[in-house]
Amino acid sequence: MPQELEGDLKVLYLAHDLSDAAVLKRTTMLRDGGSSVIILGFRRTSSPIENVAGCKAVNLSQTFNGGFVQRILSVIKEILFLKKHRQLFVDADVILARNLEMLAIAVRGRSLCPKPPAIVYECLDIHRLMLGCGIISKTLRALEGWLCKRACAVITSSPAFISEYFNAMSNVHLPIRLVENKVYPCPEIPASITARQTGKPWKIGWFGIIRCRKSLDILCELARTSNGAVEVIIRGRPALDQFVDFHKTVSTTSGVQFLGAYKNPEDLAAMYQDVHFSWAIDMFEEGLNSSWLLPNRIYEGGLFKTVPIALDSVETGRTLKRMDIGVVLPDISATTLAAFFNQLTPQSYRVLETQMDSIPSNSWNFNAQDCKELVNYLRFAEKAPRNDI
Fold first, then answer.
1. Which pLDDT score, from 0 to 100, does residue 283 have?
2. 227 by DSSP, 3-state: which?
3. Dihedral sign for Cα atoms in the order 222, 228, 229, 235
4. Going by DSSP bridges, is the β-strand pair 94-98/51-52 parallel, antiparallel, or unpaired?
5. How far apart are the first and last CA of the chain?
6. Quick one: pLDDT band at residue 194, thresholds 50, 70, 90?
7. CB 176 within 8 A of CB 166
8. What would you report as the CA-atom Rg of the chain, rounded to the nearest whole angstrom?
């Protein structure tokens, strides 16, 4: 079993899902930034996970996608029996808590320590239950605000999360650090990355966590009605609870392929180089979290000069418009998409690709210095004044 890595700052990372690619990325950044990391968390896999990025992982129970009630009960159970993990909290300089349920565990664990470590709240998605006007949403926001009185800072991944949620709706009053969903570690970028063959069939890649039923329906219709002019390649982890029959749909739709899971970042170059466009649209929580996030796929696709397709009414589209890149559409109706691909030529695609090539790679990926700066930020948080329970 991997041993705890040597480092100046001891970070206890509390993760909602030990198998999540974002948890792997953050752990790797913390490790490479010079900290010593142990991960304590739930898992969505049936088997325990012994390490993440070579760092020791301590498993709590198994949870499930969409099982919000089950997740709450699991958190309550772990809080009641958290003393068995007391030493992990005692040994930590900083607790980095991913999502609200882990923040609750962080606050309980911190209360067990004679010298309480700092808590930093990592919030990279805003769950829809946090955003309503009913009693449940108000209670969750009140709980989040109460827990954050025991924390030092917030890390989030999109400017819209700050403006639309933390500043406008939440009860959180903490310094906020923006850490975008950039690629790390950065894989080798092939010299031929901008030498794709252009022309029909135009290939759209939809990669990552596949959870948007509207996107699946639209992309299947586009491929089916394009007469072979458009193909759709899907890779990643489909949230099967969000679809009627995901596998049957993709296997019976002409022009659509599901190629399974992939390794991040090892497989990114081959995946993105094989497509012309990256589907950067997510309507899973339309008008809420999906309108505010900046998804991993715009950074991954950007790194490999793959042209993103986005909506102009959401943060992703606004960001791409500021950068003057991508295909930013007013809507993604069958008519709008068909019109775009009907007028697309190899020459017009080269213009889009040249625009992508003009963006420096550090807009899309983190480097070693970024990792050190993140760890230094946590170190500062560890020394900052805190509210004790």
1. 85
2. coil
3. positive
4. unpaired
5. 36
6. low
7. yes
8. 21
In sequence order, the 6+-apart residues with CB closer than 8 A to the CB of 186 are: 265, 303, 361, 365, 366, 367
Identify the three-state secondary structure at position 254. coil
Looking up tokens 């490479």 gives: 32
Q: Which of 75-84, 224-233, 279-288, 322-331 has the lowest mean pLDDT?
A: 279-288
Residue with tokens 């709706």: 169
Phi, psi of 237 (to 5 degrees): -115, 100
Please check whether the two domains, 9-182+367-383 and 202-363, share a CATH topology. Answer: yes
**Tokens standing for 136?**
């449940």
CB-based contact 100:143 (threshold 8 Å): yes
20-37 per-position pLDDT tens digit: 989 999 999 999 999 999
Task: Name the least confident of 98-107, 126-135, 302-311, 343-352.
Answer: 126-135
Cα–Cα distance measured from residue 377 to residue 380, given in angstroms and rounded to the nearest whole number: 5
- DSSP letter at 166 equals I
Inter-CA distances, 242 with 19, 208, 238, 239, Å: 19, 15, 8, 6
Q: Where are the alpha helices (DSSP H) in 267-323?
A: 268-273, 289-292, 296-303, 315-323
Domain boundaries, the chain: 9-182+367-383, 202-363
**Confidence (pLDDT) at 241:** 86
- Topology of domain 9-182+367-383, CATH: Rossmann fold (3.40.50)
CATH of domain 202-363: 3.40.50.2000
345 SS3 class: coil
Residue 171 banded pLDDT, cuts 50, 70, 90: very high
Between β-strands 55-62 and 51-52, what pairing exists: parallel, antiparallel or unpaired?
A: antiparallel
Check residue 265 and give left, alpha or beta (phi > 0: left; psi -120 to 50: alpha): alpha
Q: Lowest-pLDDT range, 130-134, 141-145, 263-267, 385-389?
A: 385-389
Check: CB of residue 165 under 8 Å from CB of residue 126.
yes
185-189, 263-267, 310-314: which is most confident:
310-314
